[in-house]
C-alpha cells in the first residue's frame, strides 16, 4: 500500500457477524503517523515480501512496536507475493522455517498469501475474525478509569474549587 487506507470487511463467524475495521499503511514516509493507525488494535497483520529478506527484518521491527505499544493485540505474520514463488521457487528470499520459528516465538499465526491470485487472503481474515470472537468471549474488557467531570460531591472538589 502506498499511503494509508481504511476498509470495513464484514465476516461471518458461526452465527455471529463481525465487522473488521482494516487500516492499511505501507509507505515508510508515513511511519511517524503510524501509531494512530494501530492504537487500540485487537489484531495486526504484519506483512513482508516473501522474495525480500530485508522486508522480513522490517516486519520484525513492526512486531516489536506492536508488542511494546498494544499489549492486547494479536499478531498475524503474512508473507506476500506467494504467486512469484509458484513461478520460481528460487525467488524465495525468506526461509519458511525461520519465519515459522519466529511466529512460534512471538505466538503469531503465519500465512503466505498472494494479492494477485487471492491465495490464502480470505483464510487470513477469517482466522482474524474467528480469533476475535473466540477471545472476546473469554476476555473481560474493562474500561479505563477516568475523571467524572460532572461529579459535584466530595471534599476534593470543594476544597480546591469552591473557597
Automatic annotation (TrEMBL):
<keyword id="KW-0472">Membrane</keyword>
<dbReference type="GO" id="GO:0031410">
    <property type="term" value="C:cytoplasmic vesicle"/>
</dbReference>
<keyword id="KW-0342">GTP-binding</keyword>
<dbReference type="InterPro" id="IPR001806">
    <property type="entry name" value="Small_GTPase"/>
</dbReference>
<protein>
    <recommendedName>
        <fullName>Ras-related protein Rab-24</fullName>
        <ecNumber>3.6.5.2</ecNumber>
    </recommendedName>
</protein>
<keyword id="KW-0597">Phosphoprotein</keyword>
<keyword id="KW-0378">Hydrolase</keyword>
<keyword id="KW-0813">Transport</keyword>
<comment type="similarity">
    <text>Belongs to the small GTPase superfamily. Rab family.</text>
</comment>
<dbReference type="GO" id="GO:0000421">
    <property type="term" value="C:autophagosome membrane"/>
</dbReference>
<dbReference type="Pfam" id="PF00071">
    <property type="entry name" value="Ras"/>
</dbReference>
<keyword id="KW-0963">Cytoplasm</keyword>
<dbReference type="InterPro" id="IPR027417">
    <property type="entry name" value="P-loop_NTPase"/>
</dbReference>
<dbReference type="GO" id="GO:0003925">
    <property type="term" value="F:G protein activity"/>
</dbReference>
<dbReference type="GO" id="GO:0005819">
    <property type="term" value="C:spindle"/>
</dbReference>
<keyword id="KW-0653">Protein transport</keyword>
<keyword id="KW-0072">Autophagy</keyword>
<keyword id="KW-0547">Nucleotide-binding</keyword>
<keyword id="KW-0479">Metal-binding</keyword>
<dbReference type="GO" id="GO:0005829">
    <property type="term" value="C:cytosol"/>
</dbReference>
<dbReference type="GO" id="GO:0048471">
    <property type="term" value="C:perinuclear region of cytoplasm"/>
</dbReference>
<keyword id="KW-0449">Lipoprotein</keyword>
<keyword id="KW-0636">Prenylation</keyword>
<dbReference type="GO" id="GO:0015031">
    <property type="term" value="P:protein transport"/>
</dbReference>
<keyword id="KW-0968">Cytoplasmic vesicle</keyword>
<dbReference type="GO" id="GO:0046872">
    <property type="term" value="F:metal ion binding"/>
</dbReference>
<comment type="subunit">
    <text>Interacts with ZFYVE20. Does not interact with the GDP dissociation inhibitors ARHGDIA and ARHGDIB.</text>
</comment>
<comment type="function">
    <text>The small GTPases Rab are key regulators of intracellular membrane trafficking, from the formation of transport vesicles to their fusion with membranes. Rabs cycle between an inactive GDP-bound form and an active GTP-bound form that is able to recruit to membranes different sets of downstream effectors directly responsible for vesicle formation, movement, tethering and fusion. RAB24 is an atypical RAB protein that presents low GTPase activity and thereby exists predominantly in the GTP-bound active state. RAB24 is required for the clearance of late autophagic vacuoles under basal conditions.</text>
</comment>
<keyword id="KW-0206">Cytoskeleton</keyword>
<dbReference type="GO" id="GO:0005525">
    <property type="term" value="F:GTP binding"/>
</dbReference>
<dbReference type="GO" id="GO:0006914">
    <property type="term" value="P:autophagy"/>
</dbReference>
<keyword id="KW-0460">Magnesium</keyword>
Amino acid at each position: 500500500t502506498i499511503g494509508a487506507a481504511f476498509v470495513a470487511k464484514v465476516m461471518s463467524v458461526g452465527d455471529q457477524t463481525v465487522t473488521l475495521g482494516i487500516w492499511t499503511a505501507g509507505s515508510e514516509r508515513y511511519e511517524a503517523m503510524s501509531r494512530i493507525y494501530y492504537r487500540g488494535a485487537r489484531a495486526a497483520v504484519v506483512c513482508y515480501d516473501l522474495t525480500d529478506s530485508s522486508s522480513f527484518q522490517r516486519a520484525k521491527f513492526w512486531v516489536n512496536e506492536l508488542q511494546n505499544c498494544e499489549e492486547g493485540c494479536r499478531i498475524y505474520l503474512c508473507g506476500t507475493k506467494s504467486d512469484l514463488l509458484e513461478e520460481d521457487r528460487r525467488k524465495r528470499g525468506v526461509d519458511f522455517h525461520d519465519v515459522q520459528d519466529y511466529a512460534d516465538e512471538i505466538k503469531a499465526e503465519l500465512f503466505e498469501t498472494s494479492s494477485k491470485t487471492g491465495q490464502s487472503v480470505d483464510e487470513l481474515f477469517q482466522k482474524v475474525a474467528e480469533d476475535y470472537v473466540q477471545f472476546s468471549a473469554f476476555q473481560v474488557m474493562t474500561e479505563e478509569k477516568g475523571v467524572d467531570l460532572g461529579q459535584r460531591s466530595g471534599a476534593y472538589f470543594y476544597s480546591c474549587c469552591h473557597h
